[in-house]
């Protein structure tokens, strides 16, 4: 239950992070930046303080990392179910069944006695 809620929250944070990153305007993305002008302002300082979008990006990125780590820890705990682990178990069981069918039964080998052959005398 906890994993499901955390996964839903994680997806919401992912979508919010994508939206906030796409809404931001790149540095020097105006017309002067397109033709080579205004590049010195970005290079030598003249940096504006963080905007609301940049702060939202930072917060969303931190929340994304925390939820990623939390999901990893929750899923890796022993006793938890995993589709990958269950699929691997089923595959191993399917591989063991044909091997058991191919091996001859020891009871069948012992039921037919083998008589040693005596060499013919000439």
Based on secondary structure, the structural category is mainly alpha
The helix/strand series, from N terminus to C terminus, equals HHHHHH
Shape summary: elongated
Major sheet, described briefly?
Answer: none
The average pLDDT score comes to: 75
Unreliable segments (pLDDT under 50, ≥5 consecutive)? Answer: none
Q: Give the strand content.
A: under 5%
Model description:
It is a single chain. This protein has 122 residues and is an all-alpha fold. The protein has helices at 2-23, 31-34, 39-43, 52-76, 83-102, 106-111.
Helix and strand arrangement:
Layout: H1 2-23, H2 31-34, H3 39-43, H4 52-76, H5 83-102, H6 106-111
Helix pairs in contact: 1-4
Provide tags for this entry:
single chain; 67% helix; 6 helices; mainly alpha; 122 residues
Short description:
With 122 residues, this protein is mainly α. The protein has helices at residues 2-23, 31-34, 39-43, 52-76, 83-102, 106-111.
